[in-house]
Amino acid sequence: MESSAQHVDTHTGHVVVIGGGIAGLAAAHRLLGAGIRVTLLEATGRLGGKLRTGEIEGAPVDLGAESMLARRPEAVDLAEAVGLGELLQPPTATTASVWTRGELRPMPKGHVMGVPGDPAALAGLLSDEGLARIAREPELPPTEVGDDVSVGAYVAERLGREVVDRLVEPLLGGVYAGDAYRISMKAAVPQLFDMARTHDSLLAGVRELQAAVAATQRDGGAPGAVFAGIAGGVGRLPGAVADAVRAGGGEILMETPVLGLRRTPDGWLIRTERTTLAADGVVLATPAWSASALLSDESPAAAAELAGVEYASMALVTMAFRRADLRAMPEGSGFLVPPVDGRTIKASTFSTRKWGWVADAAPGLFLLRTSIGRYGEEEQLEREDADLVGVSLRDLGDAVGLTARPVATEVTRWIGGLPQYPVGHQARTARIREAVAKLPGLRLCGAAYDGVGIPACVASARRAADEIIATSTLARGTGRGAGE
């Protein structure tokens, strides 16, 4: 297994990982690869966090995240390391639409998170007035962005609100379930932030970025698939990592919530309902609010900053239809929905079209899912399952003419599922890490810090694990081990 740390052959001590989502599992996997003894504690009876597989009408489906960015290596590398490499698959359909102004309109090509290099790329999606507004952008004076700025505010000032409301907002909403006018450009779309600081014209900056990508491809860099899935569901990844952790000698304790953390002269004491574990190091791979509670005594400064991290909730409505009951469905992988149009669903994925393994597993069915809920819309998730199915069917009927009734449905709620990255998020993360750095042998990882996608969470876990590995007690192989 690939690891940046040298394997330690002597007694290497004991690290407790708190949290069994993909970040915690990846951290445990990394630590074991360096020869460190690991115990992972998960408060619930299920591993994987927001990665979860299930079945609908006998067909396997993802009930959480369904794909991972393939152009970042971390998640693909982890999948390969735990034996899932042959199951990695690109989407079979990659073209998507935007349901706006009463029609499904093709997702434009040649944009960076909705920002075009050429206004013509958005023809048909925006009004003539909106396109003309974008075309005037090079004539505008430079926009100062300071230390950070929201994506929506900056893009609206440069290109007008219509491009934000009709394209940037639904694209960002699909990642963060957030509000483009609150989301940090520095944290969420750093390439745009860098351009804003170095270019007077945003359009010119995007064209320069597109030219650089095209030049890389001409020089032999293969574009490759942007996203990847796993046959049977991305939700298989946590189980495979857990199996590898156990096979490597790691211990995983389920339904073991941590009640307290205490620093001692020799390491850490981790208190659970049943026992107290001694450890040389701790990786906190929990949501920010949980990390805040656990650090309230040892680092009030970090706890206060963590308590300020906000989360959005959302629901996924997965439905199975008999193909024989359906009229022709649109081509492509699905569509996004701008909030400005006042619809309930924010997106729909045609799973049967998007993933070959879904189509193969259920040839007589058409599986799709909708997503509901954005930041500030928590009341949507208080509706009954049948109501969420009903509003999804109503919106699907308006969007694609769907009149068939599903033969099976599954509603999955992710309460507090997506951390928000408002303006100043990176500065908050830096303050959290500065405070935590004063606690020897403890590090944080997860979606709340450097990105909400699977590769970002794995990268966060690697960073935390490597910093723990580098601490003097563990690096010299003089740790005590649990129970001593």
Keywords for this structure?
alpha+beta, 7-stranded mixed sheet, 22 strands, disordered C terminus, EC 1.3.3.4
Task: Characterise this structure.
This protein is α+β, with helices and mostly antiparallel strands and 484 residues long. The protein has helices spanning 22-33, 73-81, 128-135, 151-159, 161-176, 185-188, 190-198, 202-218, 236-247, 288-294, 300-307, 351-354, 356-361, 385-400, 425-436, 454-469, 472-475, and strands at 14-18, 37-41, 53-56, 59-62, 68-69, 88-89, 97-100, 103-106, 111-112, 115-116, 227-230, 251-253, 258-264, 267-272, 276-279, 281-284, 311-322, 334-336, 345-349, 365-372, 408-419, 442-444. The radius of gyration is 23 Å and the shape is globular.
Q: What is the CA-atom radius of gyration, in angstroms?
A: 23 Å
| Alpha-beta content class | alpha+beta
Tell me roughly what share of residues is in helical segments: 25-40%
In DSSP terms, counting alpha (H) and pi (I) runs of 4 or more, how many helices?
Answer: 17
Tell me the span between the first and last alpha carbons: 29 Å
Number of strands: 22
pLDDT under 50 segments (min length 5)? 1-11, 475-484
Question: What integer is the average pLDDT?
Answer: 91
Q: Summarize the biggest pleated sheet.
A: 7 strands, mixed
Strand order of the largest sheet: 8-7-18-19-20-17-21
Global geometry: globular
Structure summarized in a few sentences:
Its EC number is 1.3.3.4. The chain is of the alpha+beta class and 484 residues long. 35% of the residues lie in helices and 22% in strands.
